[in-house]
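Z., the sequence and structure:
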Amino acid sequence: MARKVFRLASPLFLFFVLFSPYSIVNRRFIVEWFGCGCPKIDELGNVVQNDFNANDFTAIFWLLVTVAVVSLSALNLKLMKKRWLKAVYISSVAFLSLLISYSFCQTLMWN
């Protein structure tokens, strides 16, 4: 039973495995390449918006991780027999994945 629960929850661990390496790469490289999400001021004192910055890249990255986690979780559906249980499982994983992605994006935002 514990092995089955661990296998069902294991795709969610991908978020926590990727958080530390991504935050290091984000700080050292991604911000250098794309710039931070900070508003830039031109010579006339006008705020210039960045078209694409590290915050956008971070949001896309965690969205792709969310898709990967939900896809990996879909492989675990064969462990369940009841259709309603499958629906509850996959919707719960999708909800938790979006919640974790949102919190990680907020944590890694450059203001």
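The chain has a mean pLDDT of 89. The beta strands are 40-41, 47-48.

Let me know what you think.
H.
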